[in-house]
């Protein structure tokens, strides 16, 4: 995930708790200051909020969650029980996208399905680091141990499945296996896109996931070596309890929702909180999302990753997103004022 420059914050926001520029500020806004608030589908946001609401255990959150099941008007629910809080840490806002890959595969190896999705071997849990990607793929250290969850037909898609950390495997009978992150080999991630730029194959503005996939497929031998430039290797676990029609599990161990769930930095944004986003760029988006996931590249108070759904189309849309803007967290009223009071003190 890569950076972008955020455009200026909307005029008229009053800073009431500002400290040093490098410190975090909390500013309570009014719902009338949220651009597009009146036009959103608040009922869709409330449905997504309820998906993880029961897992919020602080008294402030428990109170609003108790009301979430009985409120008839979703917009009124959010306006009565929450306050919008602009949280900033001096960094520009950035929205990117992510998705759940969908691969073709089989429960058993065949001539077509030759590339295994592995569970984490026991010895890798205590070794830091364990074998590199090259070692795993070339030494046979994983073979014949019953660690295979499924086999897929495309090693490039398998590589990007590891980057995403979860996905679905579509079997030949039309059923699905869903897999989630199960650990990794302890090696630091190295970007193959950056490596292509270093080699002079592409310039930085040309590189995307699809460009990398196409290059590897056109150059199968050099492409395999390029992927091994990244020594990090992700293992998976089967997530059978999640129905195929629902989204993958997020950081709260609940299904996330297409275009309503975002990944955030929980240092600044509580998991489970509603978040109003005002994404700029070619296709502006103002929408109430729910913070239900995290990611290793999601760092900062004004940083979010939008979940685009499952499959290739979702992947293409997510891969194009790199926009500035701002995000405003909706906090229970008492908690919102407590944050600002702490700053003023």
From the alpha-carbon coordinates, what is the Rg to the nearest angstrom? 22 Å
Low-confidence stretches: 1-21
Count of DSSP E strands? 15
Percentage of residues assigned to helices: 25-40%
Query: What shape does the CA trace take?
Result: globular
Q: Helical segment tally? A: 11
Mean pLDDT across all residues, rounded? 90
Structural class: alpha+beta
Distance between the termini: 37 Å
Spatial order of the strands in the main sheet? 1-2-15-11-12-10-13-3-14
**What string gives the helices and strands in order?**
EHHHEEEEHHEHEEHHHEEEEEHEEH
Sketch the major β-sheet. Answer: 9 strands, mixed
Strand content: 25-35%
Describe the overall structure.
With 345 residues, this protein is of the alpha+beta class. 28% of the residues lie in helices and 25% in strands. It contains eleven helices and 15 strands. The protein has a nine-stranded mixed sheet with strand order 1-2-15-11-12-10-13-3-14. The chain has a six-stranded mixed sheet with strand order 5-6-4-7-8-9, with helices on one face. Helix 1 crosses helix 2 (59-68).
